[in-house]
Design goal:
The structure holds two protein chains of two kinds.
Chain A lengths: L2 E3 L4 E5 L4 E3 L2 E3 L6 E7 L6 E7 L7 E2 L2 E6 L4 E6 L8 E8 L6 E2 L3 E6 L1
Parallel strand pairs in A: 2-12
Antiparallel strand pairs in A: 1-4, 3-9, 5-6, 5-10, 7-8, 8-9, 10-11, 10-12
Chain B lengths: L4 E3 L2 E4 L5 E6 L6 E8 L3 E9 L2 E5 L6 E5 L5 E5 L8 E8 L10 E2 L3 E5 L1
Parallel strand pairs in B: 2-11
Antiparallel strand pairs in B: 1-3, 3-8, 4-5, 4-9, 5-6, 7-8, 9-10, 9-11
The chains are: A mainly beta, B mainly beta.
Chain lengths: ~110, ~120
């Protein structure tokens, strides 16, 4: 079974600074997708970024980018120029041969003004 | 396009009762998945429906059931509620149902409290 691990339960960053959230996963599949979702206090789960395992190029979405290391099964999220609105729970998720998403435990990000 | 909608947003029930939660996917999406989120267990997959058929199921007791209608709307039912069923129930929809390529988009959730 696939597993996703987010080892840091909490992090904080100063506004305008850069922060990196770590995620590792375990799978025997070769074709899969990885996602970062953000869950603010409103509890709405919002897609931040996704990465296709067969693509070597790291995905980017504006201030958000990933460092995908397939051999190491590592998938970290970098947030540049952090904003107060980035404060939320961040979940790393895996999707392989089944439709279900496998989530990590999440990480709470605090942005300090 | 309207997003995924879930009703009701909040629900309070007592032990032994049953509850039905509803989810309307994004227009054109045919796959609907349900997840339970609790502080202790995190996000856990309940089941997934595609074209009115349950295609995947997580490790939950038979008290948890669901269905999907021809318009892709889905309902989830929990019978004989237990205190441990208190959770945020999230619904997610995706378009084609092709497992790897789809991205799931989530609704705002239904907060269920069992007293």
């Amino acid at each position: 079974a696939q597993t996703v691990t987010q080892s840091q339960p909490e992090m904080s960053v100063q506004e305008a600074e850069t922060v990196t959230l770590s995620c590792t996963y375990d799978t025997s599949e070769s074709d899969y997708y990885l996602f970062w979702y953000k869950q603010p206090p409103s509890r709405q789960m919002i897609l931040v970024i996704r990465q296709e395992a067969y693509k070597q190029q790291n995905a980017t979405e504006n201030r958000f980018s990933v460092n995908f290391q397939k051999a190491a099964k590592s998938f970290s999220l970098k947030i540049s120029d952090s904003q107060l609105g980035d404060a939320a729970m961040y979940f790393c998720a895996y999707k392989g041969g089944s439709e279900k998403l496998v989530f990590g435990k999440g990480m709470k990000l605090t942005v300090n003004p | 396009k309207a997003g995924v909608t879930q009703t009701p947003r909040y629900l309070i029930k007592t032990r032994g009762q049953q509850v039905t939660l509803s989810c309307s996917p994004i227009s054109g999406h045919r796959s609907v998945s349900w997840y339970q989120q609790t502080p202790g267990q995190g996000l856990q997959f309940l089941f997934e429906y595609f074209s009115e058929t349950q295609r995947n199921k997580g490790n939950f007791p038979g008290r948890f059931s669901g269905r999907q209608f021809s318009n892709s709307r889905s309902e989830m039912n929990v019978s004989t509620l237990e205190l441990g069923d208190s959770a945020l129930y999230l619904c997610a929809s995706s378009s084609t149902g092709t497992a790897r390529t789809d991205t799931q988009y989530f609704g705002p959730g239904t907060r269920l409290t069992v007293l």
